[in-house]
Amino acid sequence: MNLGKESETLEFKKTTGELKEAMVSISAILNKHGVGTLYFGVKPNGDVTGQNVSESSLRDVSRLVYESIKPQIYPVIQEEILDGRHVIKVEFNGEDYPYSALGRYYLRTADEDREVTPAELRQFFVANEYKEKWEKTKSQFFSKQIDKQSVKSFWEKAVSAGRLTGGRYSAQTVLKKFGLVDGDYLTNAGNVLFGSSHPVTLKAALFATDEKLTFLDMKMYEDNILNLLKTAETYILKNINWRSEIVGIDREEVPEIPVAAIREILANSYAHAVYNSNTYHEICIYPNRVTIYSPGSFASTYSPEDYINKDIQSSIRNAVISKVLYLNKSIEQFGSGFKRIDSLCRDAKIKYSYELSENGFTFIFYRRIKKISVSGNAQKMDDAVNGTVNGTESGTVNIFLNINEQAVLGLLGKNPYYTRQELAEETSKSLRTIQRTLDSLREKNLIERIGSDRSGYWKIRKK
To answer: Which pLDDT does position 236 carry in this prediction?
Structure first.
């Protein structure tokens, strides 16, 4: 007889010789799910082998649970006969988190027990409590305080994607259908998804260099999730590089980072964020990378690599928000986001990474180093560079740009009328440093002054 596979709530032990290991599994399952079942006399693959069961062995299990699991739990421990073989079945539950086994704390991940620190465990339970309560809590905004166009757009996309059936439509019908209202008020989920009270903040910035120092552009947007997804995508695509490719007889514009990968990360950043704080989402575009920040720690005990390399069920922080984003096809499929992003980036030969912290999750797309070709006294600026201008044709030379030259060149590319004083203020440098930088860029034939010092402008030289 086979009982199937171990899971996050089911554990098998071959004999009571593994009592201490069993205590670890009980505490890990309690901490993750609050309820579970453990069998003695069953192999890890689910095969029932049986074991000797006596009053003494049952008492041994009960005694060790009492001594090892803190706070105290009261499991049901009994003998069962499965296919003629005797086993011990332990059924347990508890809500007095967190539980320790033999003085240590554990969390269940798939069919494994992972030891964690008390700080990690507290963070997990705060997130779990948030997940259970926040979305359904009544907000302070009335159900009429919605962006009707956002609701309409969601409905049309969901029907077009085949994830909702068409039929009679109204904004209030949609809100009620997905539990986004509580009486006359929007729930928290309803407000951030469709509210007209500007419930979510997005900060977007373009930097001249790879440091978070000199801004070429900075915007602060306040809107609902559905609108901010479009805003965020537009901002990124506007400020990254595009190239032309000939497909058949047509010319096609291709971005340096796949649009589908950008959309997937943006949708997941809003689906799994923590919204009950004053933090905000953030997009930063540097010459060498694009970063997308989502407030709230990573929503799973698994790592992103686990989701790429294994078939793991998605751990969802905001179930209602995620469902809405799935229905309008912002999210393709639960649990597959990192697999899709990895595949898209590999195909486009784009490197990526991520950073985890207690306060947020940052995804990083790395950009390719761009080139400026210099031939004789003429220059061709293809794109802003990462500190180096590389020659690619015969007779070309390499030009190295320091961080000040990168910043000034980037600023002049946005506004050629900047004065020395304005450049100094934008870069937090002295007038003398700015003058040296301008002189250096002119010596490298990358810029030239058109007109007088007072009324003229800077021209970026192109071939």
So the answer is: 96
